[in-house]
Specification:
This protein has about 290 residues and is mainly alpha-helical. The protein contains 11 helices and 3 strands, in the order H-E-E-H-H-H-H-H-H-H-H-E-H-H. It has a 3-stranded antiparallel sheet with strand order 2-1-3, sandwiched between helices. Helix 1 runs antiparallel to helix 4 and helix 4 packs across helix 8. The longest helix is centred in the last third of the chain and has 25 residues. The chain is globular and about 75 Å long.
């Protein structure tokens, strides 16, 4: 989440809230769709990091056997926001947008007003407006919108005027792919930030599912990508709470300890995921076996 600090205004550093957690919802939906539809992976397990992020475990045999270069290629494909702190414009779409880019923009559009307009108020000050203007191609609409940047209108009104201003400019200049500039801004604001080194490095240590985050004490629980909108990181139990649930259990004494806790749904989900992987491996082994 810290990688979003340049575009989130509710929190910073390791702090998160329900407002900026929407960035994670978008990230899960975009990456899950890309891994399944663009790469054909099937066995994806999404896991809460226990603090401010999410991890995706890909259990497909083809993914497990990838080299560092193969893993890096996938990470590069999924990386659109590129550039350091001193670079204002970090997304550039040359020519006709790839279908994956259009798909990502469509996913972001479902959350954009809630996240950037209502929660982050991303055009609420002249400084914020100048930052967004710098995400457009240089020397296009910036000079014409200085009074817009200093106006006291709300972010929704400003955003609509900004899009209208770009549309007018693009039509006047007869630009091809005139929506690209708007796509670039939307993507720079909301597109997932990946930890490329962790993704491609086979020797990088990772927290396994159900490990405990050392600073928050929360358990790293799995969840379904399609249910990410209902996932609440602040309701994830801590190790201390889980122990208390076992100690305070007053029901059937034959029930397994994990089933006495609020971790049961997460563990049941993990079991289902493992069984699915086992079935697929069995089917692959049958297909690859030879009989004489």
């Amino acid at each position: 989440m810290t990688d979003y600090d340049e575009v989130r205004y509710c929190c910073s550093d390791a702090k998160i809230c329900s407002d900026c957690w929407v960035f994670m919802k978008i990230a899960v939906r975009i990456i899950d769709e890309a891994l399944k539809h663009d790469f054909g992976f099937k066995n994806l397990l999404w896991v809460y990091s226990g603090r401010r992020g999410v991890h995706c475990w890909i259990a497909d045999e083809s993914a497990r056997k990838l080299t560092n270069n193969g893993r890096g290629a996938i990470a590069d494909y999924l990386s659109l926001v590129i550039g350091g702190d001193q670079q204002a414009k970090k997304v550039t779409i040359p020519g006709i947008p790839h279908p994956s880019i259009k798909r990502s923009v469509n996913i972001i559009s479902r959350y954009f007003e809630e996240l950037m307009i209502d929660s982050q108020d991303f055009l609420g000050t002249p400084e914020k407006c100048q930052k967004v203007l710098s995400m457009f191609p240089a020397k296009t609409i910036q000079d014409d919108l200085q009074s817009w940047a200093t106006s006291h209108q709300d972010s929704k009104t400003k955003w609509n005027k900004l899009k209208d201003a770009w549309s007018t400019f693009a039509k006047k200049r007869k630009l091809k792919n005139e929506n690209n500039a708007i796509y670039e801004v939307v993507l720079q604001l909301c597109y997932p930030r990946l930890d490329v080194n962790v993704t491609k490095g086979l020797n990088h240590l990772l927290k396994s599912p159900f490990s405990v985050h050392p600073k928050t004490g929360r358990v790293c629980v799995p969840f379904l990508a399609q249910s990410v909108d209902n996932f609440d990181p602040f309701s994830v139990p801590t190790l201390k709470e889980t122990i208390a649930e076992v100690d305070n259990w007053s029901g059937d004494s034959t029930v397994l300890d994990y089933a006495k806790t609020s971790l049961k749904p997460s563990i049941d989900l993990f079991k289902k995921f493992v069984r699915s992987c086992e079935r697929e491996n069995t089917e692959e082994n049958k297909e690859n076996s030879m009989s004489w």
